[in-house]
């Protein structure tokens, strides 16, 4: 499963389009969402694996000694400890999806439905470039990501540094 994140995107474009056509989701936002979900699973799985390995075993053992079963330990202890991991994985996925260009223009051929990066590309003309318009568009396109990082930055740093010190 993790091999999927090491395969270049360009090698799966034709099978991806054929599959989306087969399930009648080619050219739709749900089709693009499926592509991003499938391509996001390996890296987020790796992130969570590394995050969960950093949780001390003593916490889980203490819950077991206190009489908590596997489900109760997971719901009451592991999930609350996982919030920084969810934030890091969510920010990583959001940034990748927001900045996506290749899947956006291939999975959705209609320019009015394509992601913001495709719209930025369309702002550049073939003969001349209006740099002021392009820079304004880039700033507007970067704004949501910057706001999310500002709002969730504390969890992001917490999640990135989890397990770095034993």
How many β strands by DSSP? 0
* Number of domain modules: 1
Q: What Rg do the Cα atoms give?
A: 20 Å
Unreliable stretches? none
Strand content: under 5%
User: Helical proportion?
Assistant: over 70%
End-to-end gap: 29 Å
Structural class: mainly alpha
Q: How would you explain this protein's 3D organization?
A:
- With 166 residues, the protein is mostly helical.
- It has a single domain (2-161), classed as MetI-like fold.
- Helix content is 70%, strand content 0%.
- It contains 8 helices and no strands.
- The model has no long low-confidence stretch (mean pLDDT 85).
Short description:
This protein has 166 residues and is mostly helical. It is built from 8 helices and no strands.
Ordered list of secondary-structure elements with their pairings:
Blueprint: H1 13-22, H2 29-53, H3 57-65, H4 70-81, H5 83-98, H6 102-107, H7 116-123, H8 131-161
Helix pairs in contact: 2-5, 3-4, 5-8, 7-8
Fill in the keyword field for this structure.
mainly alpha, 8 helices, 166 residues, MetI-like fold
